């Protein structure tokens, strides 16, 4: 299986919407991506697709968010990520995350926040965000709200509340 991991291109948006619809069995995540894409927190290099035989089978998006503590700290939200069910558990999701982490580092971001499966993200270095006293604005169990430092000690002293932009509140 030859998977290509690459940045989203202009004509990919319908396929990305469909990948999310299939993976989540609803349209909320596809709509979230469309809202983020139109807004100021979108980073084109961090909308990444996995392609197999010219078909998009997976997608991951990282967009700008803030941690509001003693001052405002820029971070990234990993959301959403999706792989079409029949292509799951083949390592495609892992490739998307690793590639996104590398690109985020390259672009100079120093942390990523995710709300997600507690068994999945720690494999890539994510830890429970409460470890840094970083709080989630949504009511979710502590262990699903995670963060990763992309540079050493990037989150130390950045205790605060994560502010998701309005795009997220409409989900
Ligand atoms: C979460 C999601 C994106 C993961 O994508 P994926 O491509 O299945 O991820 P991976 O293949 O990298 O890893 C999934 C599992 O397969 C295992 N795996 C990886 N490569 C494998 C391979 N070659 N053969 C068999 N299993 C493999 C991984 O170890 C992992 O194991 P786990 O079940 O113990 O965690 C996908 O399941 C999905 O779209 N889910 C629905 C939407 C969703 O929940 N999104 C995330 C919201 S937080």
Commentary on this structure:
The protein has 171 residues and is α+β, with helices and mostly antiparallel strands. It has helices spanning 13-24, 28-38, 92-106, 166-169, and strands spanning 3-7, 47-52, 55-68, 72-83, 111-115, 127-128, 134-135, 145-149, 160-163. It has a single domain (3-169), classed as Gcn5-related N-acetyltransferase (GNAT) (Aminopeptidase). Strands 1, 2, 3, 4, 5, 6, 7, 8 and 9 form a nine-stranded mixed β-sheet that branches. Strand 4, helix 3 (92-106) and strand 5 form a beta-alpha-beta unit. The longest helix is centred in the middle third of the chain and has 15 residues, at 92-106. The relative contact order is 0.17. The structure holds coenzyme A (COA). Residues 23-24, 80-83, 88-94, 116-117, 119-120 line the site of coenzyme A.
């Amino acid at each position: 299986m030859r998977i290509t991991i690459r940045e989203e291109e202009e004509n990919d948006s319908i396929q990305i919407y469909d990948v999310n619809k299939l993976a989540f069995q609803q349209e909320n995540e596809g709509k979230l991506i469309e809202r983020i894409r139109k807004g100021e927190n979108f980073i084109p290099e961090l909308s990444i697709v996995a392609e197999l035989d010219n078909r998009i089978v997976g997608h991951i998006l990282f967009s700008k968010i803030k941690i509001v503590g003693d001052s405002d700290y820029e971070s990234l939200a990993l959301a959403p990520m999706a792989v079409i069910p029949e292509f799951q558990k083949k390592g495609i999701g892992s490739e998307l995350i690793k590639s996104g982490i590398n690109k985020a580092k390259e672009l100079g971001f120093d942390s990523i926040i995710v709300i997600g499966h507690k068994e999945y993200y720690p494999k890539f270095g994510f830890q429970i965000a409460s470890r840094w006293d970083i709080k989630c604005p949504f009511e979710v169990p502590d262990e699903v709200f995670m963060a990763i430092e992309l540079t050493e000690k990037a989150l130390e002293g950045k205790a605060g509340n994560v502010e998701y932009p309005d795009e997220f509140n409409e989900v």
